[in-house]
Specification:
39% of the residues lie in helices and 17% in strands. The chain is of the alpha/beta class and 332 residues long. The strands form five sheets. Strands 6-5-4-7-8-13 form a six-stranded mixed β-sheet, sandwiched between helices. A two-stranded antiparallel ribbon has the order 1-2. The chain has a two-stranded antiparallel ribbon with strand order 3-14. The longest helix is centred in the first third of the chain and has 18 residues.
């Protein structure tokens, strides 16, 4: 074991070793000058000093040898001697959150005041405040899906684009979630993410088979799909241009939150379902995962991780002990 450590011995910052020879040479030269001239050399010319010098006992104390040792120990410590590896990960990637916002016409329902889409905006604001160094993307869907902002750490851009995101801007009405989940998977693949989080804010969707298959594909990529239900089980009328949506018999149609379908989507995607009232717990969970130092750590099995432990701190104690002797009376 000792031979293995000796073979692995090296310096992390060997450039500091270059400081030792000039510092030691300077200290030895000053020591030689001090022994040759003593303090008289400071006030008497060198030509006269030999004639005036009295015989000395040759045992005059000089700090320069000790100072050379202190300098050498300090330079060795700064050079970072190492012979053991420190456990570490190859790299740490930021958290990747993809927010999927439902902009179908039913999101205009007012069972969550002032209406569902505005409450979804509030929740996105909370998510952006908790993101910090996480990368966030925003996708909206109705009859089709559109990526508003790809993965970015510039959450201010997403915040500035939130207000105009209402159902009326969508070119095609509908309630198709699968294309949005497929776009989320594409963004995560492009970022090289292995454990992204997809957060779906919706009151339902009309393509369950395709949506569940897309959620399963996201799970196979290492991502999880959390779902926040925006609305109430009792439901509310869905506004249209002339009042509210009515059925064939003329009765007002209530747009209800499809809790069962949303729960199944979250289970298929390896995430959890959250009522809008408990969405803060989802944010707390995402925030805790982001702060976990190993939550997003990954080691590339094809790469060797050369993380060495800097053992220079072992030299600090002898350095302090030797440096303390420089305070001896008569040396300063």
């Amino acid at each position: 074991m000792a031979l293995k450590s000796l073979a692995a011995f090296h310096f992390l910052y060997p450039g500091w070793l270059l400081a030792i020879p000039p510092l030691v040479a300077f200290a030895l030269w000053r020591h030689w000058k001090a022994r040759r001239a003593g303090r008289w050399g400071e006030i008497v010319d060198a030509d006269l000093l030999d004639a005036l010098r009295m015989e000395e006992d040759g045992r005059r104390r000089s700090p320069w040898i000790t100072l050379a040792l202190v300098w050498s120990l300090a330079a060795l410590a700064l050079a970072g001697p190492a012979w053991r590896r420190a456990p570490s990960v190859a790299y740490r990637e930021p958290a990747n959150w993809v927010i999927v916002l439902d902009l179908s016409p039913s999101m205009n329902a007012a069972d969550l005041p002032p209406n569902r889409v505005t409450r979804a905006h509030y929740l996105i604001e909370d998510l952006l405040r908790a993101a910090h160094d996480a990368r966030v993307a925003l996708i909206v869907f109705s009859g089709d899906a559109h990526t508003v902002v790809p993965l970015t750490d510039d959450v201010a851009t997403i915040r500035s684009l939130l207000e105009p995101l209402v159902p009326s801007i969508m070119p095609q009405p509908g309630h198709a979630l699968a294309p949005a989940l497929d776009q989320a998977a594409s963004l995560l693949r492009q970022a090289g993410s292995r454990d992204g989080h997809v957060i779906v804010l919706a009151d339902g969707f009309d393509d369950p088979a395709r949506a569940f298959a897309a959620a399963a594909r996201l799970r196979s990529l290492g991502a999880s799909v959390d779902v926040v239900g925006i609305g109430t089980v009792a439901g509310a009328p869905e506004p249209d241009g002339d009042g509210f949506v009515r059925d064939a018999s003329g009765k007002i149609v209530l747009s209800k939150l499809r809790v069962g379908r949303l729960r199944q989507l979250a289970a298929t995607g390896g995430g959890s379902y959250w009522a809008v009232e408990s969405s803060q717990r989802l944010i707390d969970r995402l925030d805790a995962a982001r702060h976990n130092p190993l939550a997003h750590a990954r080691i590339d099995p094809g790469a060797r991780v050369d993380a060495w432990r800097n053992e220079g701190y072992w030299l600090l104690l002898p350095l302090l002990i030797v440096a303390a002797t420089l305070a001896r009376r008569g040396w300063v």
